[in-house]
Amino acid sequence: MSRQIDLVRDWVAKSTRIVALTGAGISTESGVPDFRGPQGVWTTNPKAEKLSNIHYYMSDPEVRRLAWRQRLEHPAWRALPNDGHLALAALERDGKLHALITQNIDGLHQKAGNSSDKVIEVHGTVHQYVCMICGARGAMMDVLDRVRAGEDDPPCRDCGGILKSATISFGQQLVPEVIERAMRAADEADLLLAIGSTLQVYPVAGVVPRAKAGAARIVIINAQPTSFDRIADAVIQQRIGEVLPAIVGLPPI
Ligand SMILES: [Zn+2]
Questions:
Q1: I need a surface site. Which of 69, 141, 171, 253 has the fewest CB within 10 A?
Q2: How far is Cα 252 from Cα 68, in angstroms, rounded to an integer?
Q3: Which of 90, 100, 92 is nearest to 189 (CA)?
Q4: Where are the beta strands (DSSP E) in the chain?
Q5: pTM (2 decimals)?
Q6: Is 123 a known active-site residue?
Q7: Catalytic residue among 85, 98, 109, 123
């Protein structure tokens, strides 16, 4: 095991308000493809991007019908948390996890055992639907049952409005209260673990300098270099499912 990992394990042991920020890299290790990143499904396939663009979605029923068919097959339904997710759940059980900010929409952190009140989903979640007119929300599975039963673009049962997964689509604003909560958590952190994110998407990437300004140690775990490596106290470029169990002190599997 590398000296870097020993060092970070020591920091984790001494920290009491750890904030983790997770990106696509932790989910790809569970077989959920990267949608937004530089090599992402949306980025490299403009047609797929169109399906997740809010303007096309709201104006074109054909786009919505396609989107619902794709939601039936979303990889999140079958994906299982990996050792990286489980290590973050262990941090919470140890009482060390202050917040878990995630750019992922797959719900794998909750599936791994992190509680919903620790997880800040800055890009929303595919496990819920939202009505674009009246704001009604509920379990995505209920709407997918309607799609399976033959409704190809199921309307809101309260108001007849357009339904969508409760994720942030292209062209849609982030939710200011959610971003504010993430930034507040960064201010209060004593250790920030930035995991599997290229840290290129703002304002979420701003969590890193905010935590640094608040005197947190910064650890970046990502396969590629990031633009914040120079302000990090440690940079680890190894598989997340190996690194995280080692730094939280879980026995190797
Ligand atoms: Zn509605």
A1: 253
A2: 40
A3: 100
A4: 18-22, 97-102, 119-121, 124-131, 137-139, 163-167, 191-195, 217-221, 234-236
A5: 0.93
A6: yes
A7: 123
